[in-house]
Write a structure and sequence with these properties.
Layout: H1 6-19, H2 32-39, H3 43-55, E1 59-62, E2 66-69, H4 73-78, E3 89-90, H5 94-102, E4 110-111, H6 124-137, H7 148-163, E5 175-178, H8 179-191, E6 197-202, H9 206-214, E7 218-225, E8 229-230, H10 232-241, E9 247-250, H11 264-277, E10 280-284, E11 309-314, E12 325-329, H12 334-342, H13 350-362, H14 364-390, E13 396-397, E14 405-409, H15 416-424, E15 428-429, E16 431-432, E17 445-449, H16 456-473
Parallel strand pairs: 4-15, 6-7, 6-9, 9-10, 10-11
Antiparallel strand pairs: 1-2, 3-7, 5-12, 7-8, 11-12, 13-14, 14-17, 16-17
Helix pairs in contact: 1-3, 2-3, 6-13, 7-13, 8-9, 8-12, 10-11, 14-16, 15-16
Length: 477
């Protein structure tokens, strides 16, 4: 008779099944009650087995979602020594990006390549009604600025919203922009000159690469993992030994494309690192409101006491894409950014700002954004399960805790650009890994948008993508 506790027996069996590949990394494991029923034990014993595997870093617990297979230890350990950053280089990505962006205007049936949610997810009818009512009361908003009293009300609503994210932002440090892209572009124009070096994450959102290219800037790519985000060790190495870096652009909450959520301790360490080297940080929090947990994760800006972080946010993903309403809080750079904005687009449309203010004040924004988050979370889970079920063995998926993007790492040898060409012939699109770096990296990876409603057709298309990937790896495509 063995003295080994029953929960360890169950844990060892689970570990053997994980090692065999029965549950690929990122796949959902049986629920605690299901595991207990399978082994004829109570739920506490089943939970103890999972907790043991969690301590061994073989499974990952997701609040209110269950347990998921983690990376095998030999793969996880490899992330501890990430490759260092390569030399900074001028960005030239137009040839790769233009073809991808053109797909949005094409007749592709299943468009999964852009970071956009289906229009049905947003409150189109409600916003239309609000705009009509506001114009009926204030028709002058068609050709005038938002009245001062209305502006102050809007700023107070933004302050209250930001306070729920642990941000304390003065009303006079809120600057509206034409989406978050303009906020980041203004910040880069203020901080840099052509030829300067800007540190970015890699893989990195291709829109940022295009902005860097348009400004004649060099990109210094710092490794980023789906588990922890930006590698602070690689950034420290680059700042100590590389060319002078003017600023860092980072997405700490649900990074694009990996979906990474930087842990709070890492955010604090990043700020310490920035202070040590006198580095200004541009924080892109465009996906922060699309959290799947209980609250918006704290932005990096929440710990900024010196005004070194230019915080950029937006309502385009969480509320109304067509409004193109972004905003920034520039810290010690704010006055200069206000002057720079005056030389470009000057102000955002008054009618849109007025409607946003009403929605925030009434509580309708909170209600709508919560519904959007719940829908995206469900679609993300369905998409993740489908990818792991359909794609070849060796495919890795890290389920993000927010956002609308799923980063898929295919087996070595997968060519996602060739896969895209095969998929386009079946009227399916996605974003191949090569567009997420200024260098030819991530060729075996792809990014899929989870903003489309789950349907039988989408399930079939994901299955077809997986089949095409398997055919390519087998040399039959």
């Amino acid at each position: 008779m063995t003295d080994t506790p029953l929960y360890l027996h169950i844990a060892h069996q689970l570990q053997a099944r994980l090692d065999s590949g029965e549950w690929p990394p990122g796949s959902r494991l049986p629920a605690v009650r299901q595991l207990a029923a399978e082994h004829g034990v109570n739920t506490l014993t089943a939970l103890a087995a999972y907790r043991h595997l969690e301590e061994q870093q073989r499974v990952v617990a997701r609040p209110r979602s269950g347990f998921f297979a983690a990376l095998p230890r030999h793969v996880a350990d490899s992330h501890a020594t990430l490759p260092g950053p390569t030399a900074a280089a001028l960005v030239d990505v137009d040839s790769r990006m233009s073809n991808l962006i053109r797909l949005s205007a094409s007749s592709i049936r299943q468009q999964l390549h852009m970071a956009e949610a289906h229009h049905g997810l947003y409150p189109a009818q409600e916003l239309s009604r609000r705009m009509q009512m506001r114009l009926a009361r204030q028709p002058e908003l068609i050709g005038a600025y938002l009245p001062t009293a209305d502006q102050q009300q809007l700023y107070q609503q933004i302050r209250r919203l930001a306070a729920s994210w642990q941000l304390d932002i003065p009303a006079d440090h809120i600057l509206f922009t034409q989406g978050i892209t303009e906020a980041i572009s203004l910040s880069l124009r203020h901080l840099t000159r052509p030829g300067d070096v800007v540190a970015v994450e890699t893989p990195v959102y291709f829109g940022l690469l295009q902005t860097l290219q348009s400004l004649g800037l060099k990109a210094l790519e710092i490794p980023c993992t789906p588990d922890a985000g930006l590698s602070l060790e690689a950034l420290d190495f680059a700042l100590r030994h590389g060319a002078p870096v003017k600023c860092l652009v980072t997405v700490t909450n649900f990074q694009n494309p990996t979906g990474a959520l930087m842990p709070d301790d890492n955010k604090k360490r990043l700020l310490q690192l920035a202070r040590r080297y006198g580095l200004t940080i541009i924080e892109d929090d465009v996906f922060g409101e699309l959290y799947f947990g209980n609250q918006h994760p704290s932005p990096l800006k929440a710990w900024d006491r010196d005004g070194d972080v230019i915080y950029c946010s937006s309502f385009t993903k969480s509320f109304a894409p067509a409004f193109r309403l972004g905003w920034l809080s520039g810290g010690r750079h704010h006055a200069a950014l206000e002057r720079l904005r005056e030389s470009s687009s000057l102000v955002s449309p008054a009618i849109l700002l007025g409607v946003l203010s009403e929605m925030l004040a009434s509580g309708d924004y909170a209600r709508i954004s919560q519904r959007i988050r719940q829908q995206l979370k469900q679609q993300m889970e369905q998409l993740s399960d489908a990818v792991l079920d359909a794609f070849p063995r060796g495919t890795r998926v890290r389920r993000p805790q927010g956002g609308m993007l799923l980063w898929v790492e295919g087996p070595e040898g997968l060519d996602s650009q060739a896969l895209l060409e095969a998929a386009l012939s079946r009227s399916i699109s996605f974003a191949p890994g090569l567009v997420f770096s200024a260098e030819p990296r991530f060729g075996h990876c792809l990014r899929i948008n989870c903003g489309q409603p789950w349907s039988t057709q989408l399930a079939e298309d994901i299955h077809l993508l997986g089949w095409l990937a398997a055919e390519q790896l087998a040399g039959r495509l």
